[in-house]
């Protein structure tokens, strides 16, 4: 009986696509994909590498953040769950292994960074002797310095579309008042056309901290005044009109923190909101909220827990492609850097 049982156990890796369906097995990712992964685990016959088919609803988390199976990379430690009926992978929990790391972008002097979706082109604001100007620079990879630093035109609070073809910022109208303006170009290698006021937002004088979505179809910002709100506006295409801004925060949260809220950033899936809470009685805090659907409101918040994040920051801008969180130091709080980044950052859940 014992010999028969041992023989059965030893034969399992050959009979099944995974050793123990329904169990959680720890191992290492060899490669990721949309429908299948290669996975190495320690089985009865030693180190075994198998190809595993993924359920269409597979739940993938990397460093506790929701991710796609295609983002799984070779060498990632992971825990995999296989359904005991379908024999498909239903859950993968993986870690990159590297801890988030804070770095100063020493080659750039300024504040309020905004980056293209690939993280390779950056825009920011800088105070020069002749006023406030928008600058840009490039890098070839996320591990290199930004170079080709170029002064563009006067303006504040720049925010760039994911493809780098539309830049929205605070420009001056004919009455010398700050309003939301848009400059466009055919591709990221071309110069921008002269900026124009965005007609739908002309009546909003001195709004703050706009943030354009990667697809250019959604913008968040803070409305003017001490009673300003964090709002969102949408459009159906890049040439369509913007909708009337509406509050992103639910009524309870709006009442609790609206007057202290600034620098919103909405994730690519529209489900996570990062923003700053700045009270005169305490240091600024980077907080986040989650919602169940893009049409829902954000009703509660928590502080972002990241040991690598320095104190006294503003303007958080997350680049999903490179897993980088950019921001600028808060000069009034004695920050010793202009623009910084936490590498290996994941949006909190």
What order do the helices and strands come in, and which of them pair?
Layout lengths: L1 H14 L8 E8 L4 E8 L2 E17 L2 E3 L9 E6 L6 E6 L6 E4 L6 E5 L5 E8 L2 E8 L8 E8 L1 E5 L5 E7 L5 E7 L11 E2 L10 E5 L5 E5 L7 E5 L11 E2 L3 H7 L3 E6 L5 E6 L7 E6 L11 E2 L9 E7 L4 E6 L9 E5 L6
Parallel strand pairs: 3-6
Antiparallel strand pairs: 1-2, 1-5, 2-3, 3-4, 5-6, 7-26, 8-9, 9-10, 10-11, 12-13, 13-14, 14-15, 16-17, 17-18, 18-19, 20-21, 21-22, 22-23, 24-25, 25-26
What does this structure look like?
- The protein contains two helices and 26 strands.
- With 349 residues, the chain is mainly β.
- Strand 2 and strand 3 form a beta hairpin.
- The protein has helices at residues 2-15, 251-257, and strands at 24-31, 36-43, 46-62, 65-67, 77-82, 89-94, 101-104, 111-115, 121-128, 131-138, 147-154, 156-160, 166-172, 178-184, 196-197, 208-212, 218-222, 230-234, 246-247, 261-266, 272-277, 285-290, 302-303, 313-319, 324-329, 339-343.
- It is globular, with a radius of gyration of 24 Å.
- The protein is 6% helix and 45% strand.
- It has a five-stranded mixed barrel.
- Residues 1-17 have low confidence and may be disordered.
- The chain folds into two domains: 2-94, OB fold (Dihydrolipoamide Acetyltransferase, E2P) (Beta Barrel), CATH 2.40.50; 101-343, Neuraminidase (6 Propeller).
């Amino acid at each position: 009986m014992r010999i028969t049982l041992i023989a059965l156990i030893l034969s399992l890796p050959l009979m099944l696509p995974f050793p123990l369906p329904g169990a959680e097995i720890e191992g290492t990712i060899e490669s990721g994909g949309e429908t299948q992964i290669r996975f190495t685990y320690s089985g009865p016959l030693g180190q075994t590498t198998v190809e595993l088919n993924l359920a269409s609803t597979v739940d993938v988390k990397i460093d506790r953040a929701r991710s796609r199976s295609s983002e799984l990379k070779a060498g990632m430690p992971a825990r995999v769950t296989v359904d005991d009926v379908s024999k498909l992978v239903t859950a993968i929990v993986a870690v990159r292994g590297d801890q988030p790391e804070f770095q100063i972008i020493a080659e750039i002097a300024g504040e309020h960074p905004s980056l293209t979706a690939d993280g390779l082109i950056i825009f920011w604001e800088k105070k020069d002797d002749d006023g406030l100007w928008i600058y840009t620079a490039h890098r070839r990879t996320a591990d290199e310095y930004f170079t080709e630093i170029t002064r563009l035109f006067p303006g504040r609070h720049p925010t760039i579309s994911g493809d780098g073809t539309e830049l929205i910022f605070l420009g001056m109208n004919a009455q010398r008042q700050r309003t939301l303006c848009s400059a466009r170009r055919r591709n990221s290698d071309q110069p921008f056309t002269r900026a124009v006021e965005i007609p739908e937002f002309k009546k909003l004088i001195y709004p703050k901290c706009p943030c354009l979505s990667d697809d250019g179809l959604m913008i968040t910002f803070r409305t003017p005044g001490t009673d300003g709100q964090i709002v969102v506006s949408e459009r159906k295409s890049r040439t369509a009109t913007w909708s009337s801004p509406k509050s992103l925060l639910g009524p309870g949260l709006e009442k609790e923190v609206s007057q202290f809220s600034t620098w919103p950033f909405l994730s690519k899936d529209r489900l996570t909101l990062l923003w700053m809470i700045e009270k005169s009685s305490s240091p600024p805090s980077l907080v986040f909220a989650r919602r169940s659907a893009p049409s829902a409101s954000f009703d509660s918040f928590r502080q972002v827990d990241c040991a690598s994040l320095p104190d006294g920051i503003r303007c958080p801008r997350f680049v999903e492609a490179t897993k980088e969180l950019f921001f600028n130091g808060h000069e009034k709080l004695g920050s010793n850097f202009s623009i910084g980044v936490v590498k290996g950052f994941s949006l909190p859940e």
